[in-house]
Amino acid sequence: MTVAAASTKTVALSGIAAAIIDLDGTMLDTAPDFHVAVNRTRADLDLAPLDQQTIVDFVGKGSENLIRRVLSLDYTPPEVEHHFAAALDSYQRHYQAINGTHATLYPEVIDGLQAMRDKGLRLACVTNKPIVFALALLEKAGLRQYFELVYGGDSFPKKKPDPMPLLAVCSEFDLEPAQIVAIGDSSNDAQAARAAGCRVFNVPYGYNHGEPIQDVESDGIVATLLVAARHISN
Ligand SMILES: O=C(O)COP(=O)(O)O
Ligand SMILES: [Mg+2]
């Protein structure tokens, strides 16, 4: 615990020209949307509803992983594969119908994004959420305008924790990875950032697969995106 606590010290980052911000668990608390859509999918399969926390611990590695984990609670691995395609289809239909309806913005998200823009930072959103859901949600929450680039979990062959989508941002912005800070709520974000050579901050309030965020190696934990902005300079 002492080692983990020591690693949470937040350093001020200089030489930063852009920020890559995660979506679920970082800008929006989408747990209630996941809860509703997953339980409608389970009802289609005659499975009992799950509590929100159980579902939230499966969020972060994309829809396919979420649905496999949700099915694995009741089915053997061959049964999971048997039901997977229909369950994913059902989930996507239910999620699309309620996307953003029950989600809420975390504190200081708008102020944080505005503060980053005021510092001249270029902003990209990189999420493991499917791109159609991500774009619709950002639009609905009034966040789309802050981002020059938005990449979803299906925008590239590989998603976070692979560095591929972050390296695509570096290339699109024509910046070195060390000039970019990734900010997210999970080890996925931190691992992708480190593998890309980017700097990384974590926020403590989202979904980290049920693990303490203090155990994730990063440049620090920031209470909100506004606090993150205060720790970043060009
Ligand atoms: O849909 C997910 O798995 C969540 O994705 P995000 O935390 O990368 O936004
Ligand atoms: Mg997240």
TrEMBL record:
EC nos: 3.1.3.18
Binding site for Mg(2+): D22, D24, D185
Residues in coiled coil: none
Gene3D superfamilies: HAD superfamily/HAD-like, Putative phosphatase, domain 2
Pathway info: Organic acid metabolism; glycolate biosynthesis; glycolate from 2-phosphoglycolate: step 1/1
Cofactors (names): Mg(2+)
Keyword entries, A-Z: Carbohydrate metabolism, Hydrolase, Magnesium, Metal-binding
Name this protein carries in UniProt: Phosphoglycolate phosphatase
